[in-house]
Design brief:
This protein is of the alpha+beta class. The chain is built from seven helices and eight strands.
Length: 185
């Protein structure tokens, strides 16, 4: 039996006992304390420093004549990460092996920190590919000024698929300390 068929035969329970600091390209992260989160809208919560920097960056995009990106997802709890993983593994029928290249295991998502965001283009640009948009080009050139970096670029060393929508904030002492291991890699 191949390794991927063994992995596909079970769900999350086979991984939950491990306390490895890196699993399938994703480092281990604790969940942020809720008192450090702020609400940007009904469904998006971010670490207060990331939220402030994102709003600044969004305003700069607008000033530069580029459509500001919209945050789909910010903070994600361990429980929600488990549901997301199972959604792709079972409902989307990706199986475990394919899901592991697309979704971090619970406990290994940057979203747990409140510093990660998944973004999209505004609705009026629906159908356009984020990775080919002027907004994405702007982010590639300017996001670092606001403390954001693209976590999973093309051909990243982590073996995770290219995720032009996933960005992380590393612009305060707390986030730099949290992501110091990642930056060493």
């Amino acid at each position: 039996m191949s390794q991927s068929s063994v992995i596909d035969s079970a769900g999350l329970e086979q991984f939950e006992k491990s306390d490895s600091s890196i699993r399938f390209g994703h480092l281990r992260y604790n969940e942020v304390a809720t008192e450090n989160l702020v609400c940007l809208n009904d469904s998006v919560w971010l670490h207060k420093h990331a939220a402030s920097a994102f709003l600044e960056m969004s305003n700069a995009m607008h000033r530069d004549g580029v459509a500001p990106v919209i945050i789909n997802i910010g903070y994600r709890s361990y429980r929600r990460q488990s549901r997301t993983f199972e959604y792709y593994r079972v409902k989307k029928e990706f199986g475990t092996a394919k899901t592991l290249t697309r979704v971090a295991l619970p406990g290994h998502s940057e979203h747990h920190t409140g510093f990660a965001i998944d973004i999209r283009l505004p609705k009026q640009m629906a159908g356009g590919r984020l990775s080919r948009s002027d907004s994405y080009k702007w982010l590639k050139k300017h996001a670092h000024k606001y403390g954001f970096y693209e976590s999973y670029k093309k051909d990243n060393i982590f073996g995770v698929i290219f995720e032009p929508w996933h960005w992380c904030f590393n612009g305060c002492a707390e986030s730099r300390a949290l992501f110091s291991t990642r930056s060493l890699l």
